[in-house]
Design a protein that fits this description.
mainly alpha, Arc Repressor Mutant, subunit A, three-stranded antiparallel β-sheet, 7 helices, about 60% helix, HTH marR-type domain-containing protein, HTH_MarR-typ, MarR/SlyA-like, DNA-binding transcription factor activity
Length: about 160
C-alpha cells in the first residue's frame, strides 16, 4: 500500500495500515522485553501493564480486561507470582476473592521495558517526515480511546504494546 493511494474512508485500508503498524509495535515490544532478560511473554507483560496502569484488581476483573477466560488469567498470574512479579492478597471485602497487585519487581520490569520501547519508538518517529507526524498524535489518541485503552498520564508510563 502506498500513501498516495490511501483512501481514508475505506475501513479495510485503514485496518490494514493499523495492522502493519501494530506488527512493528509488537516487534519493538518483544525486543524490549527480551532485552530486559526476564523470561516473560508478551501476554504476561500485558498483565503487568494492566496492573501498573489500573492498580490492584480481582482476578475476574483482570481476565475481563484482558478478554481471556479466568482460567487463562489464573495461569498467567500463577507464572508471574512464581517469578515474584505480582502478589496475591485476600480481598478484605470478600475473603473468597483474591486481589492481584504488582510487586516492586514487576513495576521495575514495566518501567525498564517501557523506557526501551519509548527509545525505539522515538527513533522510528524521528525518521518520519514532519508533515506525517502532525496528525499522528490525534489519530493514535482517537484509536486508543475507541479501543477503551486508558490515557497515559506521563511519558514514563507508556503502557502496553
Amino acid at each position: 500500500m502506498t500513501r498516495s493511494k490511501v483512501d481514508a474512508t475505506d475501513i479495510d485500508v485503514l485496518t490494514d495500515a493499523v495492522l502493519t503498524a501494530s506488527r512493528l509495535l509488537v516487534a519493538v515490544s518483544a525486543q524490549s522485553i527480551a532485552a530486559v532478560g526476564d523470561a516473560i511473554t508478551l501476554p504476561q507483560f500485558r498483565v503487568l501493564v494492566v496492573l501498573d496502569s489500573r492498580g490492584p484488581m480481582k482476578l475476574t476483573t483482570l481476565a475481563e480486561i484482558l478478554d481471556v477466560n479466568p482460567s487463562t488469567a489464573t495461569r498467567m498470574v500463577d507464572r508471574l507470582f512464581s517469578s515474584e512479579l505480582v502478589a496475591r492478597q485476600q480481598n478484605p471485602a470478600s475473603r473468597r476473592e483474591v486481589v492481584i497487585e504488582l510487586t516492586p519487581a514487576g513495576r521495575k520490569i514495566v518501567r525498564s521495558v517501557t523506557r526501551r520501547r519509548r527509545t525505539a519508538i522515538g527513533k522510528i518517529v524521528q525518521r518520519m517526515p514532519e508533515r506525517d507526524r502532525r496528525g499522528l498524535v490525534d489519530a493514535l489518541v482517537a484509536f486508543a480511546e475507541a479501543g477503551g485503552e486508558p490515557a497515559v498520564d506521563t511519558g514514563e508510563n507508556l503502557g502496553w504494546i
